[in-house]
Amino acid sequence: MRFLFYHLVLLVLPCASSAYGPNQRAQKKGDIILGGLFPIHFGVAAKDQDLSSRPESTECVRYNFRGFRWLQAMIFAIEEINNSSTLLPNITLGYRIFDTCNTVSKALEATLSFVAQNKIDSLNLDEFCNCSDHIPSTIAVVGATGSGISTAVANLLGLFYIPQVSYASSSRLLSNKNQYKSFLRTIPTDEYQATAMADIMDHFHWNWVITVAADDDYGRPGIEKFEQEVQERDICIDFSILISQYSDEKYIQETVDRIKNSSAKVIAVFSSGPDLEPLIKEIVRRNITDRIWLASEAWASSSLIAKQEFFHVVGGTIGFALRAGQIPGFRQFLQQVNPKKSPHNGFVREFWEETFSCYLRDSSDYKTAGLMNRRNSEVPQSGNASAGFRAPCTGEENITSVETPYLDYTHLRISYNVYVAVYSIAHALQDILTCTPGKGLFINGSCADIKKVEAWQVLKQLRHLNFTNNMGEQVDFDESGDLLGNYTIINWHRNPEDGSVMFEEVGHYNMNAKSGERLYIDESKILWNGFLREVPFSNCSKDCDLGTRKGIIEGEPTCCFECVACPDGEYTDERDASECIKCSEDSWSNENHTSCILKQIEFLSWTEPFGIALTLFAALGIFLTSFVLGVFVKFRNTPIVKATNRELSYLLLFSLICCFSSSLIFIGEPQDWTCQLRQPAFGISFVLCISCILVKTNRVLLVFEAKIPTSLHRKWWGLNLQFLLVFLCTFVQIMTCGIWLYNSPPKSYRNHEMDDEIIFVTCNEGSLMALGFLIGYTCLLAAICFFFAFKSRKLPENFNEAKFITFSMLIFFIVWISFIPAYVSTHGKFVSAVEVIAILASSFGLLACIFFNKIYIILFKPSRNTIEEVRCSTAAHAFKVAARATLRRSTVSQKRSNSIDSSSVSTPNSSICSKTNSEEQSPPGGRQRECKQKVSFGSGTVTLSLSFEEAKRNSTGCKNMKRRNSLEAKASDDSLMRQKALLPLQNSEAGSEISFRTASISPSQESVSETCNSMDTAPFSSGNSIYPSSNAVPETSNTS
């Protein structure tokens, strides 16, 4: 059974070998064979296979001079290694090279030849046949070119672990070692090229692009990566298209229509030259010249596109090219090619014919080839061939006399990659040759036998390869089988000598540098399409000016936008900004929104007119209060000052000075210490002021309402107790402020939210509850004071300020009740202004109402600031109180008698008036003044005449002076009881006595006589006694 299988393989092998004639391969024997796959042609002829007969092999068309040069680079490297005495000595490398025709089918056909040869070798058929021409197995393959072709080849070679080292396949898909196990390459992956293309877009500020990709494993992954990169850079794609060299004409025309109608001026292309050529031809035919082409490495230097007749369309192209390498002696090797001297290279004959547009006729085989070439000439050639009949050639022509891409060795990029790929395999074999047992890469450190080396062993050695090439660069494949490399950025220029396309280096892309520093472009060297130096514009929308940002248009890509002005408080200082930058809290955008300027800081300043006015009013209040205090101190022994409880008045005036002064703390830039001081200073000052008024008013009321003086009254009227009460009332406010400052102290605060362009520097009170309690407690004391003042409004008015205190408290309430809504509704610096106005208004109200009347009497009416006036007013008040009490008792008595006698008497109504008679003659030895008080009843009027006698000024004192008051009236049975009720208060310090004399009163009139000794005003002056004597003589008249 095994014999039959071997016999079948021997029958199949010749058939497989006959499929590739000598003219379709380059082959040379050796100890170790390397395979090669190169695109000697750009494609295959389109042929309809109707299967009516046996299908023929597809015919390759359009000769590729660069592909043949790459093949020559492999042969040159192998010859160089064979001639080396240090690399693989005594070992000869052979080769089997096939043409892929830039198609997957031809590449797979050649790959099957490698695999079949290896399988035959694994069968050990030497015992069945004498194979003198037997070629050893292919232990590694160099190729292929396109990523799509390499993908198909890698899938097949990977099944047998035959290493494949590609020199031009850059698709990032091939880095997947799970799928492509035996694939390696000497060209960088497209992962970096797509990023580099996106960086160029970003460098020139282009955000509107068309993407074109070959419909294969090179174009699709490359453009997909490019799209991901541009999206991260906010670059938009108008549309994407896939192309192929086999695309029908209608599809190409539709694609060109879309390009022509698009507003995008940049076209990024991931494709090979053959796939892009049909599209470029149609664009040239339509003369679409206002486009910028961004070329991937596969076509950036393609001879199919870089033609003189295409330059007006593709001129100015920016492309990526591999860094050029140096191959010493390669130029001479290329020039030595000759069909008669290259028996191992079956592609030389076709190369010669295509170069000189001829056919070789020295043999029947050559004639057959010439006929084939004549058929191929009907298809447009990429070389110098032209349609029509070709002349014969001898093979002796000078190759250097014809300019073709074959001899363009100025920038050896792909050729150098081929050179490095061959040397990589050679160094892997060298490592196997020099391997020391025990240090090898295989089981137990074993080494492979170089004479019986297998492909998988070479693959293992390649994965651990590390050597230095002829340019001094380190060559080692990473875990993905890739080599890191750099790109050169080229720009398509026109050669001024012959008009051909030349590639000018304008920059580079270093993949080993950190992000942001990889790209370098010298823009001064770039010549754009149309021979322009200015960078073309390729944006969906025009750049936004400074102070504006991009605004999204619904339904359009993000790169198509409208320019929207930055809102207030934001700015942009660069063109085409995606978003506006928010200004800091202390700044605001200027009018054009191009920068931020510092906000205006506003507070109640000393220098502004409003602040100056408030300061002047506060200073005026301090001056007036100080003036009143000075007057009171100067006239401290006068009756008016004594009667107003001068010690409390001094304290009251001091508190008013503090109130006026506290308003100044609210003016100026708020600081932490001023914020913590101003409210407590205001609150304590006002509480001290109101407490003085409260104690003063309450004491006067108690004095006049007390009918019989007791020791308790005297205790309450003492000076020390008065100050104690003031202290206690003020201490409550001090404690409130202390707790406030400890728990939640006020601090200065910069308010940014109230106004966009202004920072209001205010005080954050910390606790509004504490502030409310501070003002509320002050108002509570004011309310109590108002109550006592209102109750004392009818006391002797010459020295009692109850009415004025009542009015001042009304002003106080009006001011601070109005303050609450004003404080809540006001913002900024006017919050402090409102409080200052409230403080000044209430302080001026207290000062004017309580003290201005007294200052007027002291300074302008000194005649009223006498003891007589004070005593007259006091005595009149005492008479009024006694008269009202008498009338009440008389009314009760009359009602009782009327009920018995059935007689009716009208209820008396009293009215009191006073008149002072100063024209009376003074009795001898003294000065006498008289004050008359009239009380009107329903049936008559009683006039009280008070006469005061004052000792001479040189008398030793007033201690023994007496006051006589006479009252004549009709007495009833209970008159004595009423008179006792009218007893005025005695001052123990004066040692005065009080006596009453009663007279009869007729039915139509009544009189009351009262005699008082030493009617003193001591209760009102608190320790300052006056000791006058007075005589009162009542007069009656009938007014009924």
UniProtKB/TrEMBL annotation:
<feature type="transmembrane region" description="Helical">
    <location>
        <begin position="802"/>
        <end position="824"/>
    </location>
</feature>
<comment type="subunit">
    <text>Homodimer; disulfide-linked. Interacts with VCP. Interacts with ARRB1.</text>
</comment>
<comment type="similarity">
    <text>Belongs to the G-protein coupled receptor 3 family.</text>
</comment>
<dbReference type="InterPro" id="IPR011500">
    <property type="entry name" value="GPCR_3_9-Cys_dom"/>
</dbReference>
<dbReference type="GO" id="GO:0006874">
    <property type="term" value="P:intracellular calcium ion homeostasis"/>
</dbReference>
<protein>
    <recommendedName>
        <fullName>Extracellular calcium-sensing receptor</fullName>
    </recommendedName>
</protein>
<keyword id="KW-0297">G-protein coupled receptor</keyword>
<feature type="signal peptide">
    <location>
        <begin position="1"/>
        <end position="19"/>
    </location>
</feature>
<keyword id="KW-0106">Calcium</keyword>
<keyword id="KW-0732">Signal</keyword>
<keyword id="KW-0832">Ubl conjugation</keyword>
<feature type="transmembrane region" description="Helical">
    <location>
        <begin position="610"/>
        <end position="635"/>
    </location>
</feature>
<keyword id="KW-0807">Transducer</keyword>
<feature type="region of interest" description="Disordered">
    <location>
        <begin position="953"/>
        <end position="973"/>
    </location>
</feature>
<keyword id="KW-1133">Transmembrane helix</keyword>
<dbReference type="Pfam" id="PF07562">
    <property type="entry name" value="NCD3G"/>
</dbReference>
<dbReference type="GO" id="GO:0005513">
    <property type="term" value="P:detection of calcium ion"/>
</dbReference>
<dbReference type="InterPro" id="IPR017979">
    <property type="entry name" value="GPCR_3_CS"/>
</dbReference>
<feature type="transmembrane region" description="Helical">
    <location>
        <begin position="830"/>
        <end position="852"/>
    </location>
</feature>
<feature type="transmembrane region" description="Helical">
    <location>
        <begin position="680"/>
        <end position="702"/>
    </location>
</feature>
<keyword id="KW-1003">Cell membrane</keyword>
<keyword id="KW-0325">Glycoprotein</keyword>
<dbReference type="InterPro" id="IPR028082">
    <property type="entry name" value="Peripla_BP_I"/>
</dbReference>
<feature type="region of interest" description="Disordered">
    <location>
        <begin position="986"/>
        <end position="1040"/>
    </location>
</feature>
<feature type="transmembrane region" description="Helical">
    <location>
        <begin position="647"/>
        <end position="668"/>
    </location>
</feature>
<dbReference type="InterPro" id="IPR001828">
    <property type="entry name" value="ANF_lig-bd_rcpt"/>
</dbReference>
<dbReference type="InterPro" id="IPR017978">
    <property type="entry name" value="GPCR_3_C"/>
</dbReference>
<dbReference type="InterPro" id="IPR000068">
    <property type="entry name" value="GPCR_3_Ca_sens_rcpt-rel"/>
</dbReference>
<dbReference type="GO" id="GO:0005509">
    <property type="term" value="F:calcium ion binding"/>
</dbReference>
<feature type="compositionally biased region" description="Polar residues">
    <location>
        <begin position="892"/>
        <end position="921"/>
    </location>
</feature>
<dbReference type="Pfam" id="PF01094">
    <property type="entry name" value="ANF_receptor"/>
</dbReference>
<keyword id="KW-0812">Transmembrane</keyword>
<dbReference type="InterPro" id="IPR038550">
    <property type="entry name" value="GPCR_3_9-Cys_sf"/>
</dbReference>
<dbReference type="GO" id="GO:0005886">
    <property type="term" value="C:plasma membrane"/>
</dbReference>
<keyword id="KW-0675">Receptor</keyword>
<dbReference type="GO" id="GO:0051924">
    <property type="term" value="P:regulation of calcium ion transport"/>
</dbReference>
<feature type="transmembrane region" description="Helical">
    <location>
        <begin position="768"/>
        <end position="790"/>
    </location>
</feature>
<keyword id="KW-1015">Disulfide bond</keyword>
<keyword id="KW-0479">Metal-binding</keyword>
<feature type="region of interest" description="Disordered">
    <location>
        <begin position="892"/>
        <end position="933"/>
    </location>
</feature>
<dbReference type="GO" id="GO:0004930">
    <property type="term" value="F:G protein-coupled receptor activity"/>
</dbReference>
<feature type="transmembrane region" description="Helical">
    <location>
        <begin position="723"/>
        <end position="742"/>
    </location>
</feature>
